[in-house]
Design brief:
Blueprint: H1 23-26, H2 33-36, H3 41-61, H4 69-85, H5 98-119, H6 121-128, H7 138-150, H8 152-177, H9 183-220
Helix pairs in contact: 3-4, 4-9, 5-6, 5-8, 8-9
Family: Belongs to the ATPase A chain family.
GO molecular function, one term: proton-transporting ATP synthase activity, rotational mechanism
Transmembrane segments: 20-38, 59-81, 87-115, 160-182, 194-219
Length: 222
């Protein structure tokens, strides 16, 4: 490891070509099993989470845009599987790369942003100036709201990548520190690393949820 961030380098020497980015779609292999295997607790939990997210997204999108629910639900499952697979040893964490997170956020944001300005121009202009804004502050509010809207895909992408990088960096630092301390200190570090691993697993779920729900909220404003 040449530096601390080299753990996120997409490099592999197993075959002549890199298979690291295959990890981004590795989770899709396990999805078809829930449709033909015997129902289990795993499938029951998966279905309950899917139904809960569908209800929440339908409420946010409204009746006219409920066809978008499947897109954002699929995005949640894709990001969750990538985050979860990144917790396994020797599996490349694709969601820690801005290439992946920005590829998810930018096309969707561009699509409903252009659709909103073409089909609902008056509605989009109304969003630039909140109700009750004094006339003197209107130019500044238009500028601030425009910048806020433009940076939305960037904030979505950076939030996901930064949270996944931060947890993995802490795990890497703790694992490298165990060998240079006394056995008692090493045990404390080991317990801390297990607790951090549990926390990082929760972060993997939360970040997938935040990404999908914020994308839904942005689409509901169109």
């Amino acid at each position: 490891m040449t530096n601390l961030f080299s753990v996120f380098d997409p490099s592999s020497s197993l075959v002549p070509f890199s298979l690291n980015w295959a990890a981004a779609t590795l989770g899709l292999i396990f999805l078809p099993y829930c449709f033909w295997t015997v129902p289990s607790r795993y499938t029951a939990v998966f279905k309950s989470v899917e139904k809960a997210l569908s209800r929440e997204m339908n409420l946010l999108l409204g009746e006219s845009n409920q066809f978008l629910t499947l897109i954002f639900l699929s995005m949640f499952i894709f990001i969750f599987m990538n985050n979860s697979l990144g917790m396994l040893p020797y599996v490349f964490t694709a969601s820690s790369q801005l290439v992946i997170s920005l590829s998810l956020a930018l096309p969707l944001w561009t699509g409903y942003f252009i659709y909103g300005w073409v089909k609902h121009t008056t509605h989009m202009l109304a969003h630039l100036v909140p109700q009750g804004t004094p006339g003197v502050l209107m130019p500044f509010m238009v500028l601030i709201e425009s910048i806020s809207g433009v940076i939305r895909p960037g904030t979505l992408a950076v939030r996901l990548a930064a949270n996944m990088i931060a947890g993995h960096l802490l795990l890497t630092l703790l694992s490298g520190s165990i060998s240079i301390f006394s056995p008692l200190s090493g045990l404390i570090f080991l317990v801390s690393q297990i607790a951090l691993l549990v926390l990082e697993t929760a972060v993997a779920v939360i970040q997938a949820y935040v990404f999908a729900v914020l994308s839904t909220l942005y689409a509901s404003e169109v």
